[in-house]
Each structure stands twice: as structure tokens, then as C-alpha cells.
Amino acid sequence: MTSGTMEREKTREAVGAMRTSVVPSAGAAASAGAAGGMAPAAMDKMVVSNLNLYYKEFHALKDVSLTFPENQVTALIGPSGCGKSTLLKSLNRMNDLVEGCRVEGSITLDGSDAYRDVEVNDLRRRVGMVFQQPNPFPMSVYDNVAFGPRTHGIKKRAELDEIVEQSLRDAAIWDELKDRLKKNALGLSGGQQQRLCIARALAVRPEVLLMDESTSALDPISTAKIEELVAELKKSYTVIMVTHNMLQALRVSDKTAFFLLGEMVEAGDTDTIFTNPGDPRTADYVAGRFG
Ligand SMILES: Nc1ncnc2c1ncn2[C@@H]1O[C@H](COP(=O)(O)OP(=O)(O)OP(=O)(O)O)[C@@H](O)[C@H]1O
Ligand SMILES: [Mg+2]
């Protein structure tokens, strides 16, 4: 293990410890289970139950029920317009901002109702989002990453320095940017900008990371870097990603859910969904026969 990897490992442990001191984590429960002879099972970080979402008259999500296991990557797949982004946005209540959008059913985070029991700013801090197009703010690399923590009241320079470094390390871009912290983020390459946006999302210490086609605007090398990064991030975070790239879903996700026309057709282990799906529509889609 290189010293950089070890350091990153330590950071992750520290972040994990900070969280377990507040809420018992799935890891703790799983190891308790294992000690008692039970197979460790992933706990569900978020649970969507009978979710119906309407944009005015339009019924965009139809009775969707789906669980997102903690410390796993779940991929949402399906043809354009089937509701993947809509579901992702409903997980951190971004749809609250859309006029005429109505939600029925429930979404929980660690068992608490995300629409009734969790304050919306707290929800958005705990459930962060990375978009399709890298969208750094027109300011320095440092200020981009420090933006969220500053909004949450962290002012001490030393503390901010530490958060910025840790977040850039976690987003696997510290080595590339450590000498360019004061440079404008808009001068970075697309792949660097996207990893900076991931660092910015991580800086407020979220628990869930939503990624909406976050590599579709990137070249294969930057895409591979982000895929590697996601595989690392799931040790500390629960990741939910929308992708049109079937190979990407296969490479990085543990669980896959297939959507069609606002319905969740099928969800399960990624391997099963791709090799032995239960529904012929899933089989057609993953084989590239439509969509
Ligand atoms: N703000 C909105 N107002 C009205 N209709 C919307 C709104 N946002 C999305 N829709 C509609 O809801 C449906 C689902 O859209 P959504 O963006 O969730 O699809 P998607 O699966 O993410 O598609 P893509 O793969 O193209 O990104 C589409 O028919 C879309 O036109
Ligand atoms: Mg979308």
C-alpha cells in the first residue's frame, strides 16, 4: 500500500468513525451479526416505498418501491424519459423546487421520513449530488471545495484547509491540484472539473452520493478514474448512480434497477439483472435491443 493510499484509508476511517459516533452504522450491525454467526447483510440506507410523482397532470413515477443498501453502489438504468433523474432528485428533494411537482408515498433515510422528519437543508447535506455536466463555481479550486463547509458555518482557516485537502484526496485529485488551489476552477479539464465537483460534494461529509450520468460528458480515461473512485467511495458512502452505459453499470454497481415509462420493472443484484433478468423487457434493454 502506498503512503498516499494509507493516508486516504485513514481519512476514510476517521470519517466513518465520526458517523458511527452518532448513528450505529451498517458495518457495526453487520459485524455484530457476524460475531453471532449470522451472515453480514447490508442495511438499507434509503428506502423508497410506493412512490408516485406527478409533474402537474403527468404521472412521472408510478408506484416505485426500491431499497438502496448502505455502502453499495446502486445503478438506475432505463431509456430516456423513464424517470431516472426524477427519482434521483426526489431522494434529496430537489423536486421541491419544481412548480406543480407532487409526491405521494414515502422515502426514508436511516429510517426517518425524508419529506416529513428530516429538515430539507439537512437532507441535502446528507444526500449530495453530482450532475451530468461538471459545474464548478467560477472561483478558485479551494473556494469551490470550501464553499459547502463555509455555508455550514466553518470559518477557521486550518479547519477549512484540512477539509479541502481531505475532500480532494477522497476525490482522487489532490496530487493533480495541490499546487493549483488558488487557480480558477474553470481552467481545469472536464475530467478534473468533475472530480473537483465530487470533492465539493464530499466536503460537507454526505452519507449518500447521487450521481446523474456523471461520466457521460467525459473521455474514457477520466471516466475510468471516476469509476475507480466510485469503487473506493462506496467504502464510506452509499452511491446511487444513473447511467446509460451498461458496461459501466456492470463494472461498478452492486445492485441495478431497471425503469421503463415511470415504472420500476425490476431490481436486483447487478450480475443477475444482466445475466438472468426475470422480466423480458429488462433482458431486451440490457441486450441493447431497445432504448
Ligand atoms: N420539471 C419537469 N416538468 C414536467 N415534466 C418533467 C419535468 N422533469 C421531467 N419531466 C418529465 O418526466 C419524465 C421523466 O424525466 P426524467 O428526466 O426523470 O427522465 P430520465 O430517465 O432521467 O431521462 P434521461 O435518460 O433522458 O435523462 C419525462 O417524460 C420528462 O419529460
Ligand atoms: Mg436524466
Describe what you observe in this structure:
The chain is an alpha/beta fold. It has two domains: 1-36, no CATH class; 42-137 and 207-286, P-loop containing nucleotide triphosphate hydrolases (Rossmann fold), CATH 3.40.50. Helix content is 41%, strand content 23%. It has twelve helices and ten strands. It has helices at 3-20, 26-35, 84-91, 120-126, 141-151, 157-170, 174-177, 190-202, 220-233, 246-252, 270-275, 280-286, and strands at 44-55, 58-69, 73-77, 101-109, 112-113, 127-130, 208-212, 238-242, 255-260, 263-269. The strands form two sheets. Strands 6-7-8-3-9-10 form a six-stranded mixed beta sheet, sandwiched between helices. A four-stranded antiparallel beta sheet has the order 2-1-4-5, covered by helices on one side. Strand 7 (208-212), helix 9 and strand 8 (238-242) form a beta-alpha-beta unit. Helix 5 (141-151) runs parallel beside helix 8 (190-202). It is globular. The protein starts with a helix and ends in a 5-residue tail after the last helix. Residues 1-37 have low confidence and may be disordered. Residues 55, 58, 60, 78, 80-86, 98 line the site of adenosine-5'-triphosphate (ATP).
